[in-house]
Amino acid sequence: MRIKLVALAAAACAALAVVAAAPTVAAAPESDAGTASRPQERDVRFLDFNFAGNGFNGGDTGAPVTDTANRIAAERAEIIGLNEMCYTQWVALRDALKAKPGYAGLSDQVVVTNYDIPNCYDPVVNPDGWYVMGLMSKYDSERVMFGDTPYLDLGYHYRERYRKLVCGDVDIPRAREVRACVTHTEVPLPLVNETSFPNDPDIAQDPNYGRSINYAQAEVIAEAITPMAKRMPVALMGDLNELPFLPSLDFFYSKCGGKGVFNEVDSRDPRWPVIRHFNLGTEKCGHRQGEWTMGREGQPDIYDQPYSSNRRIDYIFVDQRHFTVGPESGWVITTPFSDHRIAVGDVTLKR
């Protein structure tokens, strides 16, 4: 487990398509040419960050954006997931990153999750006060369509928050194309028994309403991306608003009772199995933990007190068929410009 000090953010709509002319290798042996054209095994660095652009940063396009751009570049992140940004901040970050070495070809896929946010308003860049989330990459990427829309609507729009899933097919140099997805699920407002979920998250008066929505949205995401992982590498990044060992995450984890096909990059933090065992009375499991990503240094790790304790709610999942995750694959970075920490992961993309 490595912990660093860092922050970040990301960029705007549309995918760039770059067509490179195929070189002719006159004297190259046929076997060499074939090897060069085949995807190679290589490491890929992911980064996920909830920028907290409105509530924490008040729409500021200055220091928070500059700090984030610097940290992304310092980490040499290749595929980046971002939540909670004013579109003005997104544009500022995109432009700042494009000026960094290695990021001139940056591409991004962005979707609107809220409208008419006063702190986000700009008469030129953001006249409708958009609040956005999305994907950024050092490389070319192509937006994935869900039917007729360039995102998947997760439904259950509580408090005018339009939770979505956005995906882009990222063209990794000398490797396979990766389908990278970013999301942000609903906050489980009431603190309830984590083993009890109502059948109908549409019932707003249900005392378990918030957590039920989180569970339902996680299921919608899993139903969409799990079949994709059968045919291509898939990654899921974002603020999932639940702790690793709770039922909403069963849809993604492939281990410790999970029903999913994914591994999380930072799933071996030694504290969480103790907390899980103590609070829920369940078996310890060494593959569904993770260093905390929301909270504050010095706060306790008490899972059922989410606003007075530290907890992991931001994730980088990669499918187990196409990626290898090691014990040191994941780490977090602290930043003064968000109430979330940055999650980073190095994983191996198989040939």
UniProtKB/TrEMBL annotation:
Residues 1-20 form the signal peptide. SUPFAM superfamilies: DNase I-like. InterPro entries: Endo/exonu/phosph_ase_sf, Endo/exonuclease/phosphatase. Keywords: Signal. Residues 62-340 form the Endonuclease/exonuclease/phosphatase domain. GO terms for molecular function: catalytic activity. The keyword Signal applies. Coiled coil: none annotated. This is Endonuclease/exonuclease/phosphatase domain-containing protein.
